[in-house]
Amino acid sequence: MVDLSGQYEKIRSEVNSAIQSVIDSTAFIRGPEVKLFQDALAQYLGIEHVITCGNGTDALQVALMSLKLHPGDEIITTPFTFIATVEVIKLLGMKPVLVDIDPDTFNMDPEKIESAITRHTKAIVPVHLFGQCADMEKITGIAEKNGLFIVEDAAQALGSYFVFSDGTKKKAGTIGTIGCTSFFPSKNLGTFGDGGAMFTKNPDLAARLQIITNHGMSKKYHYSDIGVNSRLDTIHAAILNVKLKYLDDYNKARQKAAAFYDSVFKNLESVSIPVKKDNSAHIYHQYTLKIRNGKRNDLKVHLEENRIPSMIYYPMPLHLQPAYKNLGYHPGSLPVSEEICAEVLSLPMHTELDEEQLNYITQKVIEFIN
To answer: What is the average per-residue pLDDT within 101-122?
Structure first.
């Protein structure tokens, strides 16, 4: 699904030199490369403050902690995402309120949000799924009208942007109160292990986020907040400093591969290609088809038999997962998400896909469909 080895070979000398520099300095925790990366990423995103942390899940948790919410507060989000989005809400004693998704983009359907708002609602967590922004114009309008925070889960969309009706462009993660991302190795910008970051325009929030990631420590051995131990190791920051320079090129390579897939699959009756909205750049963290003939699982097996990896993101929506049955949802509660989970199949998508590989993959899909 991801060719990290091929990507590394192209930047081997730069990455190795960056890693060796950290080893030579022995500044493994909060070394100077961390601040260099935070500053570089802030400049890339056009945001005032970037605070790094240990992983994308921590980014979401720390973001919610910084807003001084309380147990029992309700957070509106989507059932069609990786578990971390909902997991952190429950871990903090708050209540996830799930709204269904748009059947084309798989992102949160903004038309479903207002009916889910109660006097206990405090925030919305939109997920920019598979590399395309949720409809942030509508979501921000709803949040402003109702006095709600927005915490953007941009773990799959770093480098994407949303275009507002007045022509303003803003990068994914920089639109709401706080944006969050992950640097998991397979992400569009990934390190050689775990890592994450949060973004905000608010200097007071930025200071609080920084304090919370460092045990709640405002100065040495003085604790102003309940905190956690979550930091981006210096070696990972050094690697990301190298790779950030290539992020736009990486995203363009994914878009080129997606265009190849689109050109082959667009006229297949039983297959729906990803829908790209005009108001968002799609950077294809995943290239996800909808297989509408009920043979999605059979196609997956066919691809495996031909040594082609594929993945189902996601086989079961979060409201039907056993760990979250106490939220009170049941089969039929969120029908679009449930239907999509039975249809989606993601094909290999990464920066190193070449025409020979793309031809082979698409031929095997067509061979099965026909």
So the answer is: 98
